[in-house]
Amino acid sequence: MRAVVQRVSQCAVKVEGREHSRIGSGFLIFLGIGRDDTDQDVRYLVDKIVQLRVFEDDAGKMNLSIKDVVGELMVVSQFTLYGDCRKGRRPSFSKAAPPEEAKALYELFCTTCQEKHGLRVKTGVFQAHMEVELVNDGPVTLLLDSKKVF
């Protein structure tokens, strides 16, 4: 499971020209589900993201977590995080999970953030063409992989 985590001051997702969801300060998480991902990958990535200390404290140091600042999450499914561009000019997505499996783990990820950690979670629309508007705060952008590839 892979995630691109961006600290944002605001973020919105539009589908078919209409706003679907919006958050204020928090994280925009682009989430890619791999073919061999399981519930264990969900737990690892959720716990890692929730504990990231990338929000500034009173001294201006990145020392606070999303829970400390009562931030929100926007979680957007993005299978293209598993695009392999090493050969040719067209990415291969063979390592991405099939849609049915990916949707179940995506929903588990969102539910775990809400129920286990009490976070406010907004989402994109699974398998829809979306427009994502964001203001990256910092900028702070982190890459995470549950298999610790990077």
Task: Characterize the structure shown.
The protein is an alpha/beta fold and 150 residues long. It has one domain: D-tyrosyl-trna(Tyr) Deacylase, Chain: A. It contains two helices and eight strands. It has helices at residues 39-51, 99-115, and strands spanning 2-15, 18-23, 26-32, 55-56, 62-64, 72-77, 120-123, 130-145. The chain starts with a strand and ends in a 5-residue tail after the last strand. The model has no long low-confidence stretch (mean pLDDT 97).
Topology diagram in text:
Layout: E1 2-15, E2 18-23, E3 26-32, H1 39-51, E4 55-56, E5 62-64, E6 72-77, H2 99-115, E7 120-123, E8 130-145
Parallel strand pairs: 3-6, 6-7
Antiparallel strand pairs: 1-2, 1-3, 1-8, 4-5
Helix pairs in contact: 1-2
Quaternary structure of the protein:
single chain
Proportion of beta-strand residues: 35-45%
Low-confidence segments, given as residue ranges, are none
* 3D shape: globular
Any idea what the radius of gyration is?
15 Å
Q: What structural class do helix, strand and pairing data support?
A: alpha/beta
Described by strand count, sense and barrel closure, the largest sheet is: 6 strands, mixed
Overall average residue pLDDT? 97
Q: Enumerate how many helices there are, as a single number.
A: 2
Reading off the top of the CATH hierarchy, the class is best stated as Alpha Beta
CATH H-tier superfamily = D-tyrosyl-tRNA(Tyr) deacylase
Second rung of CATH, namely the architecture:
3-Layer(bba) Sandwich
Compact summary:
This protein is α/β, with parallel strands linked by helices and 150 residues long.
